[in-house]
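User: Sequence recovery, please. Input:
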């Protein structure tokens, strides 16, 4: 196979269009073990995600993890799957469509780091449409090597194989973006107005291993920075909210406090009514809907909690789409 990808037959004068590419993590094509297995194999084989040497990790992954975990994960996906498909896929596509409506003169697409539509195929399609410039926006407000870094790796890997390379700009993080903070503030306040307010607001972010942070990953610091800005916008004091980190797996030490540990401890500390929001997820997915909205509720009530409210992600919220459009416009510079 040739190293360089074939260039599409686009006339030179027409290779000047600008595109915006939104990136998200990805999802299996169906809530079945057969569909989950290749998705997990791709995801967990990325050394951005699991930093063990391949000779150590791959036998464990292929011999144990991919034997047991697909069925369990498929059961979780089945709980949250909608009639239109995976919530993450549905909402990411809606975000891209809404952004395209805001920028009719640009090409706007979305792709997934793992699964479909994949980055390689979408970049090839953009090239075939005459896109010579691409603004890449991973939908992760806080930078982590295992999320934003992994997503951008996929883009850069394709650039290595392009004979005629596209101009590329990236947005590696937007954890302190004013529009993002304001959209979350209004979203949470609207939820409280409609459903009432608990004793405490939990801001749950996806976790990373402590070792990653110790070696320079800024993710937990950016999460806490986002939380402080959001709490200030909502007028919350230090005791009115708590920052936590979810989705831990394996035996390594992860950043704390653990979301799951707090579900057990907070009721014993007098927090009987809890509201939970996930600022690091721009679209609802397995980690928010199954892990937090469903399993988290059961755990909190089992520990003595009385009222549990999961506040949905921003998804295709109009304020968030406006904030995303503003973020894109600022980072396009003169390209638009």
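Assistant: Recovered sequence (336 residues):
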């Amino acid at each position: 196979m040739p190293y360089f990808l074939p260039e599409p037959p686009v006339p030179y004068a027409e290779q000047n269009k600008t595109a915006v590419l939104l990136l998200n993590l990805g999802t299996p094509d169906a809530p079945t073990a057969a569909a989950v297995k290749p998705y997990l194999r791709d995801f967990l084989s990325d050394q951005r995600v699991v930093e063990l040497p391949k000779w150590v990790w791959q036998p464990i992954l292929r011999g144990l993890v991919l034997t047991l975990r697909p069925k369990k994960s498929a059961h979780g996906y089945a709980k949250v799957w909608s009639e239109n498909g995976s919530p993450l896929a549905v909402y990411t596509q809606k975000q891209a469509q809404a952004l395209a409506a805001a920028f009719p003169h640009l090409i706007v697409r979305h792709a997934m780091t793992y699964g479909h539509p994949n980055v390689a195929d979408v970049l090839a399609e953009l090239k075939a449409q005459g896109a010579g410039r691409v603004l890449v926006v991973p939908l992760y407000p806080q930078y982590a090597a295992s999320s934003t870094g992994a997503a951008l790796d996929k883009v850069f890997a394709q650039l290595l194989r392009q004979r005629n390379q596209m101009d590329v700009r990236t947005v590696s993080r937007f954890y302190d973006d004013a529009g993002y903070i304001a959209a979350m503030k209004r979203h949470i306040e609207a939820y409280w107005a409609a459903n009432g307010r608990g004793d405490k607001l939990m801001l749950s972010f996806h976790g990373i291993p402590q070792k990653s942070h110790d070696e320079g990953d800024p993710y937990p610091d950016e999460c806490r920075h986002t939380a402080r800005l959001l709490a200030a916008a909502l007028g919350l004091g230090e005791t009115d909210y708590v920052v936590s980190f979810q989705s831990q797996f394996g035996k390594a030490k992860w950043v704390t406090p653990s979301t799951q540990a707090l579900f057990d401890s907070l009721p014993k500390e007098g927090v009987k009514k809890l509201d939970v929001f996930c600022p690091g997820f721009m679209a609802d997915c397995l980690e928010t809907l199954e892990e937090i909205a469903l399993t988290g509720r059961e755990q909190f009530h089992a520990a003595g909690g009385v009222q549990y409210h999961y506040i949905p992600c921003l998804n295709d919220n109009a304020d968030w789409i406006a904030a995303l459009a503003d973020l894109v416009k600022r980072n396009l510079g003169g390209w638009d």
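The two ends are 36 Å apart (CA to CA).
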